[in-house]
Design goal:
Length: 178
């Protein structure tokens, strides 16, 4: 059941494996029960304590990981909110389109649609973005050290706050001609 997720997908997410974990929980529980009941009667309390320590250690590690994930999520939310606020000041307000570096989360926080010209999220063409820019604010987010795409080089260059403690991101804004 887990084979497609382990060997046929380029990325991994724990949620893909939850059904496999659920199925494996039954034989693991049976093995632990067998370990506890097959131990000599004098050893059973020691085996039970060892299993309890193992479970407590596992829960402690999971809690530590959770703390780090929550902290990273909080920082990311603050960064994306700051970028969205800056985009709104630049005139990129809903309905709008964001494309380029980290367009999906930035678009979400800004209330904009996110569109990409290529990759796994390819949903628009260059001509489609140019056409959208005629009637909708469009922002192209450019990662540090990269050049803007050719279609956006004539658009108004600005900066937005950095992500992950890096340098400010370049953004090229096309204001619609109304």
């Amino acid at each position: 059941m887990a084979t497609p997720y382990l060997f046929m997908i380029d990325y991994a997410a724990p949620r893909f494996l939850l059904p496999t974990y659920a199925l494996l929980a039954l034989p693991v529980a049976e093995c632990l029960r067998g370990l506890l009941t097959s131990a000599r009667p004098g050893w059973r309390p020691s085996v039970a304590v060892l299993l309890a320590y193992a479970l407590a250690g596992h829960l402690a590690v999971q809690y530590w990981v959770l703390g780090h994930v929550v902290a990273r999520s909080r920082v990311a939310r603050q960064e994306y909110t700051a970028i969205a606020d800056r985009l709104h000041l630049l005139g990129v307000r809903p309905p709008c389109v964001v494309t380029g570096f980290d367009a999906v989360p930035i678009g979400y926080y800004a209330g904009c649609a996110s569109r990409q010209i290529g990759g796994h999220d390819g949903s628009i063409t260059t001509d489609g973005l140019r056409a959208a820019a005629r009637h909708t604010p469009v922002a192209v987010i450019v990662a540090p050290g990269h050049k803007p795409p050719a279609y956006a080089r004539a658009w108004r260059p600005e900066t937005v706050p950095p992500l992950r403690g890096g340098t400010d991101l370049a953004v090229y804004v096309a204001s619609p001609q109304r």
